[in-house]
Amino acid sequence: MKILQRRRVLVDLKLQGVLCYRVAVYWICCLMCVGLFRGWGTAFDGAYDSSRQWPERFWQESGAVIILPLLFLPFVMLDC
Q1: Of 5, 25, 35, 64, which is the most buried if we count CB atoms within 10 A?
Q2: Is 5 among the domain residues?
Q3: What pLDDT, in 10s, does the model give residues 11-49?
Q4: Span between the terminal Cα atoms of the chain, in Å
């Protein structure tokens, strides 16, 4: 059985461009909400001594949760 391969990645450039844009915007908004809630949790749990310690603690606890999905975004957009 012969496997057919697509010759073009984007069939309708305008439509697929809008869809990729919307996926990226929703993805980034979701990551901003996660970062905001994690930041609030880190800032208000009271386990730090000064206001200079909470950004460092935030990135130690939540950096991978925010950075890794951003690196994965291009693959999701290509799949969509």
Answers
A1: 35
A2: no
A3: 788 888 888 888 888 888 888 888 888 777 777 776 666
A4: 27
